[in-house]
Amino acid sequence: MIKSLKKKFILISVFTTTFVIALVFFIINIIYYTNITNQNDEVLNKIKNDDNILINLLEEYSVNSKKGILSTDKLFFNAVFVAELDENKNIIHIYNRGNLLEAKNSQLVVEKAISRKHDKGYVDYYKYTYATKSYGNFVIFVDCERELVMFFDFLKNSIIIALIIIGAVSILVTVLSQKIIAPIEENYQKQKQFITDASHELKTPLTIIGSNADVLEMENGKSKWISNIHNQIERLTHLINSLVAFSRVEERDSIEKTQFSMTDLVKSRVEDFEEMASFNFKEIEATIEEDVYYVGEEQTIVQVIDILLDNAIKYADKDSKISLSLYNTKKFVYLFVKNNAQGVKQGDLSKVFDRFYRLDESRNSKIKGYGIGLSLANLIVKKHNSYAFAYAPKDNEFVVEIRFNKNGKR
């Protein structure tokens, strides 16, 4: 259990760190890329919306006596070239200022832009937009190579830095996890030791009390007081055994899995409990699919089935039927146990899996048990990476549904 808790702590810590770092760097890079796009859009819109600038470009002379178009940022310059198109988007002429691109390359860039359905966007390292004027149709290109290269370098460095940080945090968390988990492990070991010690310490006096009660019964005959002593000894012994069993299952980090016939196993357990049910004036109706196989720990699965049937027999109404169903699907092996129980209200009853919880303490006070059984069954199911549900589909009806996961993953 402690190993599992440690693994979960490391995984959650690393995942949280990875998510936060990835989110931060993602936002930073998005902002950087958006700024580049906005700056280049500003240049394109300035050319597109200012006929004087566009005409000057077409006449192939420098604006502001500089190569490039000056944006609102005085230090931001971009080389620009323009392609003139006819109505069918055929290239008439390319105005390539300052021989920004060789004629062949500039034509390829223009053709790529024309082939795209969007009126603006990126082609290689160039951002483009269309401009329709009275004196012609044009595609304007602005060189973004410098900015995009810087962006991709920044992106690459961001990924490297993020991986370094995540790696460092992972190592740090792994090293510190033992110290962080240590108090929990200590408390858990003390709790486990307490249960073990208490079980041994209690069994001896309970045995002595039982023996003394037997002697009193032989000397004085049967009485309700001696009967009560025997009943309480039996209940305490059952509680101690349940707590020890729960502790042993809980401390295990893994289970020994083998393939076995769930069909044969369930049939065997139903046969064993039919006599008990009959003795309590109840009947078990079983619908069991043939050839259902499962890979798990057979011994603990037996415990689950026994707990469910024992619980149903205890709490089902007198002269009622207990329904058990087993069937197979692609992902799960389903086991249902249903019984009638007066006072149960419709809805989710998952609280029955809590230790020492009983649905109706006043009604069930005469029924032996401490609310450990279903909690133990749920723990075993979880050890198999499977699911347990308890609910009332309608008033006075109690259902426990087990979904045994066939792929071994929750």
List keywords for this structure.
alpha+beta, single chain, 6-stranded mixed sheet, 410 residues, 8 helices
Structure in words:
The protein is of the alpha+beta class and 410 residues long. It is built from 8 helices and 15 strands. The protein has helices at 2-49, 51-58, 103-115, 145-220, 224-251, 262-279, 298-315, 373-383, and strands at 69-70, 77-78, 80-85, 91-96, 120-123, 126-133, 136-143, 258-261, 283-288, 293-296, 321-328, 332-340, 347-348, 387-392, 397-405. The strands form 4 sheets. Strands 9-11-12-15-14-13 form a 6-stranded mixed sheet. A hairpin with a 2-residue loop joins β5 (120-123) and β6. α1 packs across α2 (51-58), α1 (2-49) packs antiparallel against α4 and α6 (262-279) runs parallel beside α7 (298-315). The longest helix has 76 residues, at 145-220. Residues 61-76 have low confidence and may be disordered.
Report the count of strand segments: 15
- For the largest beta sheet, what order do the strands appear in spatially? 9-11-12-15-14-13
Main beta sheet: strand number and arrangement? 6 strands, mixed
Considering DSSP H and I runs of 4 or more, what fraction of the residues is helical? 40-55%
User: Over all CA atoms, what is the radius of gyration?
Assistant: 38 Å
Shape label: elongated
Kindly, what is the distance between the CA atoms of the first and last residues, rounded to a whole number of angstroms?
A: 17 Å
| N-to-C SSE string, H for helix and E for strand | HHEEEEHEEEHHEHEEHEEEHEE
DSSP helix count?
Answer: 8
Low-confidence stretches: 61-76
Let me know the average pLDDT.
Answer: 82
Percentage of residues in DSSP E strands: 15-25%
Structural class: alpha+beta
